[in-house]
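Tokens in:
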């Protein structure tokens, strides 16, 4: 077996350590103990985030000192943070990801020796690259009527290019051959389609990497039916969230799943699991996921040799199956976290023969200038507006009042839809109706100026009869419709 040619940093690298909540402090201590025993060149800077920060009244869930520490060090290892459910406080995890624009979530999915799953022996070994800051996770939600909620799915061209380039960089860093782009572009042509199109533009720059597109629901199916086919899979935020958890389930579950959050200014490494409050403080938590995350962190700071050494010790320990924690113990009682850690340390100079060697290199991340990204269009036309109205009437009655409202205005009413399905003019079929309608008004002729006066006039006319709550301009950029059909 060839060890990595890249050497450990000569001086210690400062890393922000956020122990977090529940079992966090226990798995953090365990991980730090193993890293220290292996001689990792890391100096820890302890920082606070999560439940204690919320208790202190810090709504963002992370203290100023914590944010400053991450900004200074650029690298953090983080335990799980409790997220308050429902209204009120924000998620501290989201605060950290967003503050440092950690746009890439990297989740390796690799079969672990000794962890029995229905997929054992299949040689599963791939990486999910999930966009981490856009999509419905932008958290822009509105109740449009008392019974109808909306969440905006924000996808940007630059965000798509960025995550595709990161996926390609991850593939190159790990000597992988294929990038699968999984989207729902067949339905969401503009948003999900943007990731597909970004990949089609970017991937030809990497001719040595095979590139394929897969519809995301089929991707979920394929991950279960034939998981060996995947190498690197890249997705928008919510699809990536769901499929990376599915993928973790293939190789032993969240308790052994590591992750990295990468951005230009900072990288944060964390286990995928939560704070497991049921077992917190009992000394029985499994630290494997955070330990594997710390190996990603060691590679990030260039300490490839120590990462490899610990990885082998961990694999030997899992293979032999002695002193495993309760969640992964093969028989009988599980061992305490401390015994598992001692066993890994005792195995530090042993090598596993079961795991195919992978030669890691630094991930060549492009740096994205901190500017306002502006995408010009050679032509743009305003052709109409979609006005969303709340009404308990039926579509025909609504059409009559809306047509009357548009009479002598700059617009024609061309269509009314309810939850995306056309309900006027009637095209047959049975549409379940709720009090939320989209009325499409097209300009009779192109407006002279920016169209604002005509739109304002229309809204006033509609507002006399209807409660409208939302408006979208219908535009054409570079000669192409920039809106979906009903
Ligand atoms: P969880 O991951 O904490 O627990 C799910 C199950 O897995 C539980 O049975 C738990 O005991 C077990 N488990 C998890 N990690 C384990 C480990 N290392 N060793 C042994 N068993 C382990 O998920 P949850 O119960 O849904 O969430 C609990 C809290 O964690 C919530 O407040 C949630 O918001 C938070 N959370 C945080 C993160 C994060 O910080 N990244 C991620 C997920 C959940």
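Residues out:
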């Amino acid at each position: 077996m060839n060890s990595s040619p890249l050497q450990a940093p000569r001086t210690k690298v400062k890393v922000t350590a956020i122990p977090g909540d529940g079992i966090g402090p226990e798995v953090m201590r365990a991980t730090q103990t193993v890293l220290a025993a292996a001689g990792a060149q890391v100096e820890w800077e302890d920082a606070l985030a999560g439940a204690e920060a919320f208790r202190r009244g810090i709504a963002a869930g992370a203290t100023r000192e914590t944010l400053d520490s991450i900004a200074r060090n650029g690298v953090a290892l983080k335990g799980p943070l409790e997220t308050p459910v429902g209204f009120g406080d924000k998620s501290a995890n989201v605060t950290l990801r967003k503050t440092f624009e950690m746009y890439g979530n990297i989740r390796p999915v690799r079969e672990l020796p000794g962890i029995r799953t229905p997929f054992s022996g299949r040689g599963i070994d791939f990486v999910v690259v999930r966009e981490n800051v856009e999509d419905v996770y932008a958290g822009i939600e509105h109740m449009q009527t008392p019974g109808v909620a909306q969440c905006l799915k924000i996808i940007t061209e630059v965000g798509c290019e960025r995550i595709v380039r990161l996926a390609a960089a991850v593939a190159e860093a790990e000597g992988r051959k294929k990038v699968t782009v999984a989207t729902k572009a067949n339905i969401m042509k503009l948003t999900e389609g943007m990731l597909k199109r970004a990949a089609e533009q970017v991937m030809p720059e990497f001719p040595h990497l095979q590139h394929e597109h897969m519809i995301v629901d089929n991707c979920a199916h394929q991950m279960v039916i034939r998981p060996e086919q995947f190498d690197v899979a890249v997705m928008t935020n919510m699809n990536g969230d769901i499929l990376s958890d599915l993928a973790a389930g293939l190789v032993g579950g969240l308790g052994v799943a590591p992750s990295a959050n990468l951005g230009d200014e900072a990288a944060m490494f964390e286990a995928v699991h939560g704070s497991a409050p049921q077992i917190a403080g009992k000394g029985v938590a499994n630290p494997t996921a955070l330990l594997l995350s710390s190996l990603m962190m060691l590679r990030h700071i260039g300490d490839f040799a120590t990462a490899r050494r610990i990885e082998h010790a961990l694999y030997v320990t899992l293979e032999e199956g002695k002193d495993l924690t309760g969640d992964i113990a093969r028989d009988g009682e599980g061992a305490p976290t401390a015994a598992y850690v001692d066993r890994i340390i005792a195995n530090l100079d042993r090598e596993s023969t079961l795991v195919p060697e992978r030669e890691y290199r630094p991930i060549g991340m492009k740096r994205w200038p901190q500017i306002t990204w502006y995408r010009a269009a050679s032509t743009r036309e305003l052709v109409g507006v979609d006005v969303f109205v709340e009404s308990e009437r039926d579509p025909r009655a609504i059409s009559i009042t809306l047509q009357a409202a548009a009479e002598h205005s700059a617009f024609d009413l061309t269509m009314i839809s309810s939850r995306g399905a056309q309900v006027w003019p009637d095209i047959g079929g049975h549409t379940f109706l709720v009090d939320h309608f989209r009325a499409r008004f097209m300009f009779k002729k192109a407006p002279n100026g920016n169209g604002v006066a005509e739109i304002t006039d229309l809204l006033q006319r509609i507002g006399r009869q209807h409660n409208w709550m939302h408006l979208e301009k219908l535009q054409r950029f570079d000669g192409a419709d920039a809106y979906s059909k009903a």
